[in-house]
Structure prediction request, 202 residues.
Amino acid sequence: MVRFANLILCAQACAIAFLFSSIPLAAGVRELPISADRCAIFYALTGRVDAGCATPDPSVHGTLRKLPSASEFSKKAAPLRGIAEEQGYFVRFEFNSDSLTPEYTAHLDRLAQVLVSSALEGSCFMLVGHSDTVGGEIYNLALSKRRASQVAAYLVARGGVSLARLGTEARGEATGVPGVPGPHPLNRRVEILAKRQTADGC
Prediction:
C-alpha cells in the first residue's frame, strides 16, 4: 500500500537515522519529521532557538546529515549570521511522486509561518529537488524539478511567501544522500535551505 509522503515517520527511516547520526557535517542540513512544529523548523533553518521556543531536544529536532552543497545558491547569497555555509532541512516524497498530501501541506503551512516571520526578514530560501536512481536520468531530473516547484508554488499561493525570496534547483539523481543506496527513499527529497539576502537580492 502506498504510504503518504513523509519525512521520517516509518520504522525503516528511524533505523537509518540511528545509523547515520554520527556523520560529521559540513552543512547543517537536518532531517525533520513531518509533524515538526514551528520551533523545530526555525531551528533547522537557522541553527538558533526562536523566541518563545524551548532549547532544542535532539530527539525532536531531527537527524543531521552531510549533504552535497547547493552550489549555485551558495554563489548568490551570504550565510545567515552564525550558521553553517548552508543551513536547512529536507522533506521526503513517495516513490515516483511530486504530490503534496494533507500531512505535507500542513507541514508547509508551518514552514510558511516561519519564512514570513520577522526573525527571517531579509532571508532567501532555495528549494532543491532530488530523486532516487530508479528510472531514467532525464525523467528523474524532471521529477526533481516538479517536486521543488510544487513546494515553491504552495509556499507562495497558500503561505504568502514572496516568490522573489524563493529559488528552485533540480538535481535529479545526481546528488544522493551519502552512504545510502541510490534507490533509497531518503533520496526522494526537497531540501529547504536558508541564506541571508545580499545587495543583489536572492
